[in-house]
Predict the 3D structure of the following.
Amino acid sequence: MIPHITTTPQVVALFSQGLDSILATRVIQQQGLTVQAVKFISPFFGYEIKGCEPEFCRQIKKSYDIDLTVIDLSDSYLTMLAAPQYGYGKNFNPCLDCKIMMLNQARSLAEAWGAKAIITGEVVGQRPFSQRRDTMRRIEKLSLCEGLLLRPLSAKLLPPSQAEECGLIKRELLFDFSGRGRKPQIALAQQLNITDYPNPAGGCLLTDPGFAKRVKTLYQGPLQPSLSELNLLKFGRFYPLENFSGFVMIGRHKEDNQQLLITAARNHYILHLPEMAGPVAVLKGEEKDLAFAAEKLCRHSKARGMTAVKVNWRRENESGTLTVTI
Ligand code: SF4
């Protein structure tokens, strides 16, 4: 779906919220062009914005004078993650497919809005793989963005884009930044009077080995995991069921417990201990798996060491009690 925007942009910017994408956008705005920034989110990156997108966009406008729209890629991302065409990185991160997906989306938006270029804050050589010159060219080709895509911070090190060739964007006012150093970006930020920019983002949960392993486990099951199942993985201890048929999450503290209750879907079981304060468990599984979930719940509670412990469970209109012998 193409989001409605009020001004017709000449340029679409991929916006990560990091300094580089802020600079790239501002550099093009300084040439007098109208830029529409787009931030893509999924359960693995940027999802903290979900539900408060308008406030977030207002904040970005106020802080950096950048018009932003947020697009949730979750549905297509979850499908892609099952079998990315170009495989996974070191963890369960499908970086090539992910970047291609974002650029494809940006290209569709640019076409729909009549924009003539797409920009990113990428800097040649900043990341070991994805920002290598040859990988950048490959991604550009595979996303059918050749000629359309421009990286203002490294433009002078790369072949000119169509927007530069036709004079829409002045190449001589762009940059030749490269490598991992941040000095040129910090100097440019000062020049543009940008002071309150975020630190380089830790970013994507799929590059976190522990979290990526949980996600991979879910994808080994018979069905594609749902959005709520993937979000549940963020809170607490994780216990997969046999044959990857489901899993149990146990909260480690009050915040986890609250998040598990908010995130659980109607078809998930909720378990708690009626006779003492303690964690909450969420089970994605069947009734036969309740005993396994209850046992894990007891092991992470004050019931540890007791002989018989009551565990209450509920799911939609059903509920019941189990007695666990530890
Ligand atoms: S690190 Fe995550 S968000 Fe970044 S390209 Fe890879 S999969 Fe996509």
User: Anything to note?
Assistant: Residues 208-325 form one domain. The first strand starts at residue 11 and ends at 14. The mean pLDDT is 95.
